[in-house]
């Protein structure tokens, strides 16, 4: 039920979707006796969309999330294993085109190439099933397995967890599969903006991990960042808002060990 509700709320309350819906309601009210409300909702929606598309809102929302866990040092000790979270594959396109279709978070899949070369003894596991509401015979792990085998990273020694549909299930099912020993060092590879929620969930599941953030969307500069492309800015606002909402939801439902997990 949590998975289904999260998908519904994520679609309806996503900032861009929400204000588009609000603009439609406002435009409709212009043809009724509630014209004043219609003008107000239309103006509010237009201003909000303009701010998200051309203002610094995306950077303001994403910056604290990406800065929460610093990059891992280059001279860190050899880890026992590397866990890579899903969210890297467009399932629909992968099925229709019969090849792995990577999304913006592709660095989650490319970073392990260098990590595995640097730490050849470390075990590598990818966790990610299908995030679709309807059951799908094709999991994200299937596409990743094909991608990693084509580039030579997977030599038959990579583990794949195919059941999980969200970050909470990533943590629970990965822990069940690996049964980590106390004191073991496991790197967690995911987008920097997603790292706080991911670490909190893994900790709550009894799996202490070491953050290895990738796929940065902001420069880390303290100055306000104004986007050059509206589509990219809107995507950043959506991603960051989703993570902040996820932090709250996961904490309220007991799926994370803190509201804003820290190192």
Quote the beta fraction: 5-15%
| Arithmetic mean pLDDT | 92
Question: Under CATH, the topology of the largest domain is which?
Answer: Rossmann fold
Q: Please report the first level of CATH classification, the CATH class of the largest domain.
A: Alpha Beta
Taken from the alpha-carbon principal axes, the silhouette is: globular
What integer value in Å does the Rg equal? 20 Å
Structural class: alpha/beta
CATH architecture verdict of the largest domain: 3-Layer(aba) Sandwich
The helix tally amounts to 10
Assembly context of the chains = single chain
Strand order of the largest sheet: 3-2-1-4-5
List low-pLDDT spans.
none
CATH superfamily heading of the largest domain = HUPs
By DSSP, the count of extended strands is 5
The main sheet comes to: 5 strands, parallel
Number of domains: 2
Brief sketch in words of this structure:
This protein has 263 residues and is an alpha/beta fold.
Description:
The structure is a single chain. This protein has 263 residues and is α/β, with parallel strands linked by helices. The chain has two domains: 2-54; 73-216, Rossmann fold, CATH 3.40.50.620. It contains ten helices and five strands, in the order ααααβααβαβαβαβα. The protein has helices at 2-13, 15-29, 35-54, 57-67, 91-97, 107-118, 140-150, 167-178, 195-204, 230-252; strands at 81-85, 123-127, 158-161, 186-191, 210-214. It has a five-stranded parallel sheet with strand order 3-2-1-4-5, sandwiched between helices. Helix 7 links the parallel strand 2 (123-127) and strand 3. Helix 4 (57-67) crosses helix 10 and helix 8 packs across helix 9. The two termini are 31 Å apart. The mean pLDDT is 92. Keywords: Membrane, Transmembrane, Transmembrane helix. This is YdcF family protein. The chain crosses the membrane at residues 6-31, 43-65. It comes from Methylocystis rosea. InterPro entries: Cell_Envelope_Assoc (IPR051599), DUF218 (IPR003848), Rossmann-like_a/b/a_fold (IPR014729).
